[in-house]
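Input/output pair, single chain:
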Amino acid sequence: MIQTLLINLLQILIGFGGGLAVGAGFVAFITVLGIIPRLIQLSKTESLIKVYSASVIIGLLIGTYFSFATVSFQQPVVALIIWGILHGIFNGMLAAALTEVLNVFPILSRRIRMENYLLFLLMAILFGKVFGSLFQWTYFVR
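Output:
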């Protein structure tokens, strides 16, 4: 009984610590890249700054809920494929924005001596993200 309680407490502590780390990383990512201010600037909607902030917070809360809840939406495979492609595009664009800021690809290509094959490296990462998202949504979510 006490052992189970300690294991559950340890799992809660690890989960909470992991959530704090991921949340702090996400906030740092949004802050460093200035995604929301740049979006507001490009769309010329400075008066809607509270709507943007609320949308990010609500989206994160709903996404977190659906990640842990056992809610199931029965969708056809085609809808899951489209949803997986959209997730792959979203994740790819976030990764691209981060790597653009940090100049990861030029440094990586020089370190592994693939300067002449940078396009192939980028395409491999792109297709890996897309197919990984498709696999996740068609195999694990369905």
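Residues 73-142 form one domain. The CA atoms of residues 93 and 126 lie 10 Å apart.
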